Each structure stands twice: as C-alpha cells, then as structure tokens.
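pls ignore typos typing on phone
pyridoxal-5'-phosphate + seq
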Amino acid sequence: MGFEIFLSPPQMGGNEQKYVADVFESNYIAPLGAFVNRFEEDIKSYTHCSNALALNSGTAALHLALRVSEITQGDFVLASSFTFIGSIDAILYQGAIPVFIDSDLDSWNLDPSLLVKAIESLPKKPKALILTHLYGQCAKIAEIMEICKQYGILLIEDAAESLGAFYDGKHSGSFGEFGALSFNGNKIITSGGGGMLLGKDKEKIEKARFYSTQARENLPYYEHIDYGYNYRLSNVCAAIGVGQLEQIEQKVVKRREIFSWYNMALYKQTESQILEFMPEIPNSRGNRWLTTLRFLDAKINPLALVEFLAQKGIESRPLWKPMHLQPLFRDSIVFSNGVSQKLFESGICLPSGGALDKNAVDRISDLILDFIKSC
Ligand SMILES: *Cc1c(COP(=O)(O)O)cnc(C)c1O
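k done
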C-alpha cells in the first residue's frame, strides 16, 4: 500500500554513502573487508561488549548462539512469548523445544515469576532462555539474570530491537552470555539487512565465526570436519552499518522525543485511563524504537484503528501476536497469565521513524483522538 507515513522506514543521513563509495573504490564488495571489522569494533565500543561477530541477520546471531552452546534436539529453551518469530526460529533450527513465558504489565516483557514457575515445573532442566527486550524497552534484566544464575540457565538476550537501550548504564544484550542485534530495514539503524552476535566468551564467538563461514578449516584447500552456515555480513552492508551507527545516540534521542510528543498529545487519554503507553522500567533508558500503547477501554478496537489510519495514508500495526497463540505453536508448552494476549488484543504500534516531525505526530494523535470519540 502506498503510505505517506511509514511505521519505521530507514533513515540515512550521515556518512553511509561515502563509506559505500569507499567500498567500491577498494573493490572489497564482498565477502569481507575493512568495514566488517570496523563495524564489529564500533559495536564493541558502543555496547562495551568484549566480543562481536557481524552477520547477515539477527536471526543468524541467535542461531549461532544456540549452536555454539550445543543446544540441540529435544532440549528445552525458554523464551519470551511476546516477541517476533525471528527470536524463536533458531530454537526450531536446532531441533530444540521452545517453552514460552508470558509478560507482566509493568514491563510488557518477560514475567520473572512465571520464569521461576516454568523452571521449577518442567520435567527436565531447560538449557537456555532467549529474552527479548521488546520495542527497545528493557526487560527486568537484573532480576532475570539472577534467576538464570541461580538455576544455571544460559541467558541469551534478543536485543534485535533494543540497540541504544541501557539498563543500569549497561547496554542491552551485554548482560547475558550472548546478545543478538539486528540491522534489518525497519530497526533503529539498518545496514540494509544484517545482525551482530555479542558474547562474553571469546572462544565461543570465534567458534561462531568459524560456523558463520561454512566451518571451513584453516587449510589451503577446503577441508570440512563439521558443517556451518553462510551467515557473514558483506562489506557493502557493513559500510552502511558503520555510517548508521555513528548516529545512534541522535536516533535514540529523536525516537524518545517522538514518544514524548505522542505522550503529550494523548496525555488527557492516559489521565482518564483510556490508554497506556509501554512502560519504561526503573533504572533503564529504552530506545523507544516504536511508540506503542494499549487501550484500556475494550470498546476501542486496535485493528479498526490500524485500518482507519491506513485510509489516511498512515502505517501502524497491532502489537506482536504472542508466540503461544500462533498456529505453528498450537501444541507447545506455555506459562501464561493472559498478559501478552491482552496486549495483542488491545495495543498498537505507531509511526516512529526518525524523520517524523512534531506536526506529523500531532496529526496522527488527532486522528487517534477522532477515532476514540467515534467508538
Ligand atoms: C528483527 C527481530 C529479529 C530478527 O532479526 P533479523 O535481522 O530480521 O533476522 C529477532 N527478534 C526480534 C525481537 C526482532 O524484532
């Protein structure tokens, strides 16, 4: 559909084109090249993670985290149910069994008490947890990390949406053994598709690097003892990523400003308990990748609002449909309290691209107010 305002379009604005021209100049278009290394170094210094591996998607990063952790056929892997499928695919690639954990209302992210309940009631110990920081807002990471430590569960953070989000001054994705970032087209920065695996253990990241280039042995001819994947990022994409990452702090400030504009414009509705924005947990700074809200009045149908805005040329979207409600996971194990289902049925993601100005946000907010009145 021809939208006038998109949900979260790419926003180029710095050195991206110049760096791509440098790549052409050098003819290191692909596979690797100087920008791939530079992108890894820049991500390491921004996130304060000691190891990083540039990949062609965030999904690949999660897959390699599970593979190098030897999570395999029949293993239980706990995961946030309120997330995007890319968070869960890797579990299926490894033949492992996802176990879904619902959200709580004060973070909209994984509920720590349900996590404990899941660990204590499963017939065998789960091997890992994939924890999503949804919409760039931090999950209750300190509490969750403590639980993982207590029960000996490997923590993998899905920080695909949360580049630029910090908890207690530390970057999301840098708490667990592994963290996965995504630079897909609609994320806060994009490399035209790409991802990054962050990790505490250098050896494990080096092993992931080996798997990401077809598990090729270090010999003059092609020798294969193990199998791998074609998961590395190209130098062209890395050049775009480097240019984008230089602007990450401005982008976070802008997305947070867009959130505050929506918040101001819809303030009366929050006061009168008609709607509620996604919270920000204490001691954290989310990136407000997307401004999201839910209606507290059941008369307001978010799908109808998405349709109403689309007719005005504005792209919006319902909140993620929880994994445990997906037909694909009809028979899977879930520890639920109804929260993510409620969020899905009552919530919406609003246009949040970095190029939006206050006039556009005010116009969208006025349309939302009109819609509310008509319900
Ligand atoms: C985008 C996203 C992914 C996957 O990233 P890709 O780079 O598209 O593979 C995983 N999890 C979440 C929560 C995402 O939003």
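The chain has a mean pLDDT of 96. The domain at 16-245 is CATH 3.40.640.10 (Aspartate Aminotransferase; domain 2). more later
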